[in-house]
Each structure stands twice: as C-alpha cells, then as structure tokens.
Amino acid sequence: MDLGDRGCSIKFCQWCGAATKHEIPYGDDKPRAVCTNCGKIAYQNPKMVVGCLIEHENKVLLCKRKIEPSYGLWTLPAGYMELGESAIEGAVRETWEEAGAKVEVLSPFTQLDIPLIGQTYIIFLAKLKDSHFSPGPESLECRLFAHADIPFDSLAFSSMLVTLNLYIEDMKRGAAGIHYGIINKRPGTSPSDIHDFSLDYHWMR
C-alpha cells in the first residue's frame, strides 16, 4: 500500500466539516483529502511512538498489554507522543502510565521507521529511579526479565522484537550502541505481526 493513499481515510474537513474529495493538489505528487467547501488540504503524517528500554540489575522491564492490539503480549512501555512534549518527555510519561515506574533516561537507543503503517519508534535506554513499578490501566502485568528469559515469542510488535534483539546483541559486545533501522512489512500484514517483516536497513553507532 502506498502511504500516499493514507490521506484518503479523511472523509470530512477538520475545519468546516464539509465532505472532502481525494485528489493530487497542484505541485504535489500524492492524493490528499481536499475540502469541497473551503478548499483546505488535510495532510496525514507518520505517528511517533516513544518509549523506554529500562535496565535494572541486568534485567529488562516489560509490560503485558491489557488492550488491543496484541492483548496479553509483552512490550516495552511505549506509546504515542503527544503535542507539546519532547520525545524524552513522552517516553518518560508513557513509562509512568504503563508501568508505574519513574525513570532516568540514559541515551537514545533505537529509531525504527515502519513506512507501511506510517509509524516511527524512538526507544531510549533508561534506568529506574527507585525499585517500584506496577501495571497501569493499559497493562495486565509488569515484570523484570533476565536477558535469557525475555519472551521473544510473545512480544507485541516487530519494533519491540527488533529493539530487544539489538539490545541483547549489544550486551554481548559489552556496550549499548545507537541504532537506526527501517522495518518493512509485507502489504496486508497486521501491524502487530512480529514474524512477517524484514529489517532492510540498519545503521549503528
């Protein structure tokens, strides 16, 4: 699916409420939702997901999801960035909301683009400020996992699988790097499918 088609999901104008038509505006190369009344163009851009990979006593904190998609599967605490906050602020907020944990961010760890579903993930390495954590409203359970016990077959999203695999590889080398990658999913694949994808580009520092 061409990401240009994503604008076609907007049926009504967000400014005046009139119906939209879907066409390629002058000077553009992708179809957009254009208001039939006021002529304004609505653009849909990729969503930013931010979160934390929390290290504590050689273990990693994961949350079991209480919501769809991927109910009952494990993930790093993460969620959509809000307007008015930085990526770090969003990651700290999501960690508190999902895992009841206060954290100190140490460094960026991964940025993973998933063009097919219009998402970018930014995950930071972080540490607990104290030993307390507890599941928030969107989590069934929060648990610290030793590296060998991470439930790779029960992870919620391909981005989490890639992030945790990169982390384990880095720990074997003795130091965490900073990673950028592009995850390509096969058209028609569920966004939460952790098997049918490829990491087609990977840069590490």
Automatic annotation (TrEMBL):
The keyword Hydrolase applies. The keyword Hydrolase applies. It comes from the Eukaryota. Gene3D superfamilies: 2.20.70.10, Nucleoside Triphosphate Pyrophosphohydrolase (3.90.79.10). Keywords: Hydrolase. It holds the Pfam family Zn_ribbon_Nudix. Residues 45-168 form the Nudix hydrolase domain. InterPro entries: NUDIX_hydrolase-like_dom_sf, NUDIX_hydrolase_CS, NUDIX_hydrolase_dom, Nudix_N. One of its GO terms (molecular function) is hydrolase activity. PROSITE patterns: NUDIX, NUDIX_BOX. PANTHER family: NUDIX HYDROLASE 23, NUDIX HYDROLASE 23, CHLOROPLASTIC. This is Nudix hydrolase domain-containing protein. It comes from Kalanchoe fedtschenkoi (Lavender scallops).
